Amino acid sequence: MKQQYKRQWLLVTIVILLMQGCGKNFLELKPNQQQKVPTTIADFRAILDNATGYINPVNNRSSHTLGIIGADEYEIPPAVYGTFPVGLTFDYQKNAYGWNERVYQGGEGGIVIPTDFDMGYQRVLLANLVLEGLGNIKPNVAEEEQWNDTKGTALFHRAWNYYCLLQLYAPVYNTVTASSDLGMPLRLESDPTARVPRASVEDCYQFLIKDLKEAVSLLPDRTVVKFRPTKQAVWALLARVYLQLEDYDAAAEHATNCMNVGRELLDYNNRTVHTYPFPIYGTENTEVIFVMTAYDALAYTGEYLAIPVDIYRSYDDADLRKTLFFEQDNNSNIRYRGSYYGSSLLFTGLALDEVYLTRAESNVRLGNLTEALADLNLLLRNRYRKDAFVNLTIQNEDELLSRILKERKKQLLLRGIRWEDLRRLNKNPKTATMLKRNIAGRGVELQPNSLRYVWPFPEEAITVGGYPQNPR
Asked: Which residues belong to any copy of the RagB/SusD domain (predicted)?
């Protein structure tokens, strides 16, 4: 076992030395000659199994930091704003909290000040490295299953990270402008020095969908190791992607495919109020499909930063989430403890509760109110006290959609999903939201469809890559 972890560390380290920072610094680093170059299927599997390591973890530090900071799910009490470790850690995070015109100051990136951009592209380049390596291996019959699983995993991670990066650094998908809107640079090889232009938003989505459709043919249906993707995870992610594209038929179809593999919702009546009421690491949580967590420092969002009172009050007293998700501190601030990772780390992976809500929303938008109501009632029946819940009988389409969207905000709290929901829902005035904050006595607002819903690229990426910057 020690040799296995040693090998993983050496393999991952050589890759990180090649790509650290996605800027000038990582281009100048040279690998140690004694480090092993990955050549076998097991080597490439080990790279992708670096799930929770501190340096370049594959399942940790997901590209959700700016989205979580920018959304409307928490607030920083004025007394702790700008303090460490209680407040936001880095200057760019403080700038993001105020939706400032300038977010990055220069010098961000790498291990010291990690950014969503860096972490996302490090994982993309890792996936490309694995895909290139596997392309040089012709597996025999005994190796074929492992080769397929490893390739499918790499394709999933590449698609997942491009999707997350698009939610932060590219405009929301618009059928009219997607072919001309600037998306992300589509890196298709592991060479971090290659100059790659920004692709269109349309091309980015079509590329990641292609990756996911190939991955689903290679991966197993399910796995006991929830840090690894499966067919079920691919279908869950495709449902999320198509919801973003407003292709509700496809979103409902992929949500159904996902649920047909397994649809075991947790009954919150059986959960105990505890410091962290859900199973540690999410591995024993029947709803969790794929484990991913946000940047470590955002754990303080759960432990120290406050949940807005209006969010807390949106949960009925009979709603078990009110006691399982939250606790009140000595200063009467509401703290979040409901992460599906079962700790202070925020869960940003894929889970069945989201899939139920995605299918419900897709069906109501397609006019299938009976099906939408059935999914919503099944979810809520497992969230409310059994002696208090009565099935909803909403027959009005707008009213049912409003309730489903309300439950998305309540159930998927602090998972990194709210920011992308705000962006897509702002396109319709009926579901648009004005965000407001008080920062040290100064009121700030984020208008629906503001340019500031698209975060700027880090300064180093602009300098080294020569990319056009996002307007703010």
From this structure: 354-449
Q: Which two tokens stand for residue 223?
A: 């796995």
Arithmetic mean of pLDDT, 210-235: 96
CATH 3.90.1490.10 at 1-219+434-472, yes or no: no
Rounded Cα–Cα distance for residues 158 and 313 (Å): 39
Q: Which CATH architecture has domain 224-418?
A: Alpha Horseshoe (1.25)
Structural Rg of the chain based on CA atoms: 22
Q: What is the mean pLDDT of residues 174-189?
A: 97
Eight-class DSSP state of 428: S
CA dist., res. 173 & res. 180, Å (int):
11
Q: How many CB atoms lie within 10 A of CB 396?
A: 10
> Please, are residues 435 and 446 in contact by the beta-carbon 8 Å criterion?
yes
| Bridge partners for 240 per DSSP | none
Say which residue the tokens 């946000």 belong to.
Answer: 294
Three-point CA angle 364, 368, 373, nearest 5°: 65
187 residue type, one letter: R
- The predicted model gives 92-97 an average pLDDT of 91
Do residues 210 and 219 make contact, with C-beta atoms less than 8 angstroms apart? no
Among the ranges given (28-32, 405-409, 460-464), the one the predictor scored with the smallest mean pLDDT: 28-32
Cis peptide before 85 (omega within 30 of 0): yes
Locate CATH 1.25.40.390 in the chain: 1-219+434-472, 224-418
